[in-house]
Specification:
Structural class of chain A: alpha/beta
Strand content of chain A: 15-25%
Helix content of chain A: 40-55%
Keywords (chains A, B, C, D): Amino-acid biosynthesis, Arginine biosynthesis, ATP-binding, Cytoplasm, Ligase, Nucleotide-binding
Oligomer: homotetramer
CATH class of the largest domain in chain A: Alpha Beta
Radius of gyration of chain A: 25 Å
GO biological process, one term (chains A, B, C, D): L-arginine biosynthetic process
CATH superfamily of the largest domain in chain A: HUPs
Shape of chain A: elongated
Pathway (chains A, B, C, D): Amino-acid biosynthesis; L-arginine biosynthesis; L-arginine from L-ornithine and carbamoyl phosphate: step 2/3
Distance between the termini of chain A: 69 Å
Number of domains of chain A: 2
Domain Arginosuccinate synthase C-terminal (chains A, B, C, D): 181-398
Binding site for L-aspartate (chains A, B, C, D): 123, 127-128
Number of helices of chain A: 13
CATH topology of the largest domain in chain A: Rossmann fold
């Protein structure tokens, strides 16, 4: 017999899997289910999820459908981008960064509805279960968490569908067979993994990609854009002010058109295995490069290098699910402190899969043509200072060499 | 009056600037000059340098011309690539990594010829003076270093040319005017900076690029290649075994053709100013991506993440000129230790400016399809373990949340 | 019913708890038990363990009793000391560093005896279970691990003793009641925790300490000793050459006499909770301070600071049980590289709880009285170099200040 | 001829050296001098400095004498202590942390008095020149800095005294000979270096110590005290609320009495040489240990370990003079973020040179006796969770071992 649960808030997409979970929770736990469906920019209609929930007997006041796009970009994506976070050198953390927001809403809804548990549809092999649950426990240490994929015995597609049919859950025709891969999508990215992608020697087939055109099919002419930043965050595209989500959506359109942001990666999961994922982050890739571009002229070297040293740990924390942890918040405090003057404009060239920074300017620029110039600098820099600078930097190496230590 | 110097080894390219330096050393220091000209793959004839040295009165046995290409790639470029080193997120350190090798030879030649000093043609505003001199002092703490650009008063082009003519140094016609930018080249890269590149808002004009075609002019069809690695180093291209320098040269050809490895960067110099550089690293960019690709399936997560955390410091050390330092060597020892199993084959797609890893395989692969699969894994992984894993990772966060600490 | 196990190697102390485990393995798993008892310098007779194992029916060739003291100090304690490792600022990792060696022998004995499992007596709340098992899995990925404390229901002292008596295991009188705290001991330290130590506001009662006199009872006169180091490892005490274990044992005697190495700490366990421990590391504390002392004159600043930056992670890895991991080995490679010239003599003053370095000398000393002196240094250092050094270090800060960025 | 300077603010102690500097500035630069004398708790009368300045012709409104003790402890010492900063493992940075405050006042006074330069009495071999000047340039990029010790030729004691006498500067009898060592003092510490301390093998003679009794002469009975912390800062001693400077002064008295805080160190200077220093930080040592004590029960592991990893770099920045740098401020932001719940009471035992934490309690304590107990914990922790925790932490190590990679 299961733990006693009175009411559970389920992260509900309206798809077959979470519909089976909804019913299974009702059947196996004998508890009330509250559904929560979030619009994170995944590009799906949400009203069908409401209709399905109603069909499963969920009362209206227990069906939550929230548009979280602005909160997602403003409070999660942008703070992460301030850090130039890339996991294992490349991955822009599109799935990882959405999970803590979903958990935050699950916990809020649990409080509002008096629920004592939450449930999610992540499997027992992946990172998402960890991300959902660490966030949930950090926000409510007494919450119960139900992860059906770790509990039930519906471990093959066939059994899942049999169970669905036995419980009067409609099974769409295209869900009867095995899907060739599994996906996750939000305003920042679409990820695909599993099945046909499991051999890391095989190139990802083009039909897996859904958010970007193939670079080979992208326009033959490059397109130039500008992004304006204020205090480390994007605020305008081509001079037009935009909210965070609007800006990211517009960059997604541009990235799609030019085939930007595809990534084929073998990565290390927190649960200890390697997996192969395919990511499309069209707008995010452009944004990330532009952010580094504006930092390059507005951030002092000391700040910039410290950020680079802290980044791998920061990215790992987000990947592993520790968004709501003291150490992520400490790093964020340091990163945010660095962004006070990261304002200005970046010019980016988009062309067949590439986003290249080709210009940057800022009222806060620390770049000094007067100091750096090959020409006479009128005393802005005394080249003789370099001799002393080198001599003292070399002193310890010379003392070491004198000891014959090399 | 200058310090007394008996004999000086000059890093001599044969160009106008180092020819002026050669003569200036003879005139101002009244000392013998030994010339050292290195083939680092910069793509220039070296025999003209010999002829010019002879004309300046240097005896044959004091003219050194060395082909250092294999040593450069094997002992400097490849070890650095094992670390996935990129300065400030992007720069592949093409100039930085060549300087310690030149200094090493200058010091060796000083020993062989009984010289008590070395000289170089780097200016007082740049990083190269630091790199040359730190390396030199680390290898011979008692060497004298002469940096004419920090000493003389030939601080404008006009004065330099007047001095040259006054001292019978031939001035080629195309050197009479100001060069629109300055360059450095070796087998790894060509860099350009200064003059027409000094406004970071202006896009780099296409004529600055010399090592790569414009991506827009690159072939319309992608090209696929494979690179084989053994213990972290590249050993074959498309199945054909190659020496380090041969492999890098072949990748340069491929990169040139497909417009790969261009980088327009505002960076932070060690001497304290920001500068804008334009880099072309065609083969290096392909190689660097392939190396990360083979690591992705052969390197354990613990090793991979530690490498990512150490990398910014490692890259900074090389950029700043500390190749011959205990701390760079310590990091190298750690990095090299990690590469024992980094062997296998990577497949890379080259297309209009991009080099993308699309496949990787290895006899040492740590990727386990059996463990990661969405299908039944026959007990390779018990999903129930994840519950305990999450619970204990969450424990401290729950204790914190119970204290109302959020 | 338990997993099928054929033969299990048990880490066996001969005490009541592991005797119960031995019998429980025989009864519950119906398997053969091989006993392994290690002399790590814990200061107990080992032959009684043999006698007890014989009584429990273990055949002679399945009773392993090994003196591992030299291996322990040489291959585990000293390499760790090279890193100046202290967990959370203070703890010298006395328990943590012994676990991987025990696991290593368990796995070796399993191979020799054809056993398919190992077992240990660590509880489910502590770090030791993690350390034993991570080491074991790293050395033999297919080994089965039995941790009876996580499996059985003998969760109170009363039930354990009832079970022992029901199975004819002799229960010494002094083991019938609850022990006021639990201890672990080896040549490096004795730790105590639990029960009477569980309130972190209460001072540790003096009767808990067993390895050191109370500083208040230590001699009123200080004692001076010297320790000689070669390549980072201690080799002699007061000029007398000693093996690693002999040296540590001799330092333990000195530390005991002078009340050195007591530590009362609230620490963070890997399993997520805080615990309060009391540690006595008499010889280790003296050795650790002496090692830093010899490094202070023989280690270059770059190496020393890099070591300090890497140390917390290194210590955490050992504390968490990742001795046999690629990342610990990478860090060890870096650390060991740094120790090539860490040779010389350190003079230490021992007095009522303190071990203070008061002198250090080395043929490899990088300390230069000639350079540092307040007196005329005869040109060893040109004070004017400092002006340029400061000017270039300040340049970026001045450019920043000019932007009004403060 | 010197650079043209109109008016210079001099860091003026009133002692012989800075009196010579004052006159030398008047003579050599022909400029007005403004004197600034700070009370940082060095324990000297300041009014004599005023009288001497008047004698040298400085008008009243150009004589600044400020009591900076509270600002020093509140805004410099305490923030640094929040980080548990120790340079090279031991040094509590007593001199380093005072320099930026002095520079801050120098720059403020320069602004108030319309001065275009500042001057200090630090030599060209030490760290203090760097600290003074980096801070000054960071706060006013256009300030001129005069460092007479790097400029003049009064490089021996004899010449300095001759110059003083030739310029009618009174030379106290006890300043005629060479001082056996040089000192710096403030409320945090007294440092001594040079001369009789220059041989690192010789024990520091007892007469060098001025702030602490010899531990051998300290009371034979230990003394117990409590320190209360709020948000990471000390606020009370033995239950009595105190301002920062008052608290530190009271701890200094206690530390002096018990011989606490002596340190004999060979350290690495930023200018590239090793030096030997003797430090006495009586109150600071007690405070630093108490701060770690209160953190041990109130700081989450993630925060604590991140702090430990960042500390060496933070300490190095302060030691090297980069207090007013973006990277120090970023680290401070992270550290300060961590201190929100670092409140409670620590009990410390003082005895013959040692300060040992023996108790700690807090309303914010994260230590849970219920979770950690050896007794039945009523379900607070499920020991079976540990099995899954270990299994997933081991997974990557097992996959690695399967590849025969060990």
């Amino acid at each position: 017999m299961k733990d006693s649960v009175k009411r559970v808030v389920l992260a509900y997409s309206g798809g077959l899997d979470t519909s089976v979970i909804l019913k299974w929770l009702q059947v196996e736990y004998g508890c009330e289910v509250v559904t929560f469906t979030a619009d994170l920019g995944q590009g799906e209609e949400l009203e069908p999820a409401r209709a399905k929930a109603v069909l499963m007997g969920i009362p209206d006041h227990h069906i939550y459908i929230d548009d979280l796009r602005e909160e997602f970009v403003r409070d999660f994506v942008f703070p992460m981008m301030r850090a130039n976070a890339r996991y294992e050198g490349d991955y822009l953390l599109g799935t990882s960064i959405a999970r803590p927001l979903i958990s935050k809403r699950l916990i809020e809804i649990a409080r509002e509805t008096g629920a004592d548990a939450i449930a999610h549809g992540a499997t027992g092999k992946g990172n998402d279960q960890v991300r959902f649950e660490l966030s949930a426990y950090a926000l409510n240490p007494d919450i119960k968490v139900i992860a059906p994929w770790r509990e039930w015995d519906l471990t093959s597609r066939t059994r899942l569908i049999e169970w669905a049919e036995a419980h009067q859950i409609p099974v769409p025709k295209d869900k009867r067979g095995e899907s060739p891969f599994s996906t996750d999508a939000n305003l920042l990215h679409t990820s695909s993994e599993g099945k046909c992608l499991e051999d890391p020697w095989e190139e990802t087939p083009d039909y897996v990609y859904s958010r970007t055109v193939n670079p080979e099919d992208a326009p033959d002419a490059p397109e130039y854009i500008t992004i304006d930043f204020e205090k480390g965050d994007g605020v305008a595209l081509n001079g037009e002010a935009m909210s965070p989500a609007t800006l990211l959506a517009a960059l997604n359109d541009l990235g799609r058109k030019h085939g930007i942001g595809r990534l084929d990666l073998v990565e290390n999961r927190f649960v200890g295995m390697k997996s192969r994922g395919m990511y499309e982050t069209p707008g995010g890739e452009i944004y990330a490069r532009a952010h580094r571009g504006i930092e390059s002229i507005t951030l002092d070297r000391g700040a910039a290098h410290l950020k680079d040293e802290l980044m791998p740990k920061y990215a790992e924390l987000i990947y592993n699910g520790f968004w709501f942890s003291p150490e992520r918040e400490m790093l964020q405090a340091a990163i945010d402190h660095s962004q006070a003057n990261v304002s200005g404009t970046v010019r980016v060239k988009l062309y067949k899969g590439s986003a290249s920074v080709v210009g940057r300017k800022s009222p806060n620029s620390l770049y000094s043509e007067k100091v750096v110039t090959f020409e006479d600098d009128a005393g802005a820099y005394d080249q003789k200072d370099a001799a002393g600078f080198i001599k003292l930097n070399a002193l310890r190496l010379r003392l070491l060499a004198r000891q014959g230590k090399h």
